[in-house]
Amino acid sequence: MKKVIGALIMVTALSACEDANKAIDKAQSAANTAVDSIQEQMESIDLSKLDLEQFGDAAKSAEALVKSVEEALELDFSNPKALNEVTEHIASAYNCMVDATSESSAEALMNKMMDRIQSEETKSLIERSIEKGKALGECVM
């Protein structure tokens, strides 16, 4: 009798766990759908139509960031000195862009540029530079 009651308790407990797992899966699916929808809306924003001059000093920071990424596109990766300089330029420009606007604005601009870059080596350099820029203190141009 005790074995039967114990078995019934185990079956009931396992059934409850399965229901909980299904509920969690549904919640994750709903959250993923919401995030995908938001990302699609964000991607539809055309940053090239923004009037950067309306942001005052932030426009200068955005221009500096774009120019530093252009340096990375033209970089000779066999030149360690140039590699270090470009890394520093991107890190500094990214840091200043964050200071002038916000991290989300800086990331949005970077994502827009990164989407157009084909070279994985260049993308990797830029990503490392951004991480370095996040660790910097104040903006120094």
Automatic annotation (TrEMBL):
PROSITE patterns: PROKAR_LIPOPROTEIN (PS51257). This is Lipoprotein. It comes from Shewanella corallii.
